[in-house]
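Tokenised fold entry reproduced for everyone:
>
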Amino acid sequence: MLQMPVLSAHDKKAECPLSLAPQGDGLYAIHAATVTDKSSRRVSALARGYAKLCDMDVGPSESNVTISFPCKTDHHALLGLLMYRAQNIRATMQEQEVSKGRGVLSAPTNQD
């Protein structure tokens, strides 16, 4: 039986866990376990991280921040897998830039 991935992780800067709550149709609400100025900033940072990584739409709601996929489809496994990367988006983007500068390895027969 397939299980839904964990959509929660402790955020050191927020000093509490951040979690995603699926709302259906590709919409997710991001919550902090404790509401402080730090955790509110980290919730917004997590939303921006997902927006960059997954090309998602970000929007505010009454008590939290929401992210949504334009395709209106749920992608729990993807969000669970990328949560750590979305929390550390600056490092992730720097890593991608460094890897772009490296050459691609190919077999000697494929080199021209």
